[in-house]
Amino acid sequence: MALKAKRLIVSVVALSLLINILSVVYIAQIKNNQEALNKSYQNKISELEDDAEFYRNQYHKYYELSEELQNQMGVYYDY
User: What is the pTM of this model?
Assistant: First the structure.
């Protein structure tokens, strides 16, 4: 009977150790996935900020050109 109890205890300890190891691996995978997602989100945010800056600059150029055109048209209408 004592031998069976020892085997049972060893089996339970081995199983719990295996479960703990698998848990650590699973948690590490979750953290890696979170880091990859955060990096991906940061890249997308950076791209969007760059796009916004580009279109802001384009709008500013368009606005300056339209003002210049209006000024030139005003000069021609004055004559």
Answer: 0.58
